[in-house]
Amino acid sequence: MKRNLFCDMELKDWLNSINFTKEDLSGDTSSYPPFIINRCLSGHIDCILYANEMNMNAHLTKDMQYSFYLNSIRKRKRFSPWLRKDKVKDLECVKQYYGYSNEKASQALKILTKEQLNFIKQRLDTGGTK
Fold first, then answer.
1. Quick one: how far is CA 15 from the chain centroid?
2. How far is Cα 106 from Cα 112, in angstroms, rounded to an integer?
3. pTM to 2 decimals?
4. In the chain, pLDDT over 90 holds for what percent of residues?
5. Is the Cβ–Cβ distance between 15 and 73 less than 8 Å?
6. Cα–Cα distances in Å, from 49 out to 25, 37, 42, 81, 94?
7. How far apart are CA 96 and CA 75, in angstroms?
8. Which ranges of 10-101 does DSSP label H, i.e. alpha helix?
9. 89-113: string of b/e by CB count within 10 Å (b at 16+)?
């Protein structure tokens, strides 16, 4: 029984193919994740314009998007950590105390003093073990 090599493709296989090995994996692009690939490549200074071009042409098929990246991006070992939003200290306290959303609480944190934040924390402290 012959096993299809393309059915078990993971994100790392697609990225390695585009960035480093330049091995054409376009036999079955059904598991190709265009949004995630665009997001990963946009973290590199030399790939950001290519990722932007694919964002503007998201209507293209997965095979066409993969072929564009495979044949346009130079071979290079690339690594960048996944971009995450920073967690703001004391944001949850302000949200709970005032009943604010994330955006309003972050604005309030800019104008609150340390004494006011300590007061809020004391008011929210219910005691007991955490």
1. 14
2. 10
3. 0.61
4. 62
5. no
6. 23, 13, 8, 19, 39
7. 49
8. 11-16, 34-41, 48-56, 62-72, 91-98
9. ebeebbbebeebeeeebeebbeebe
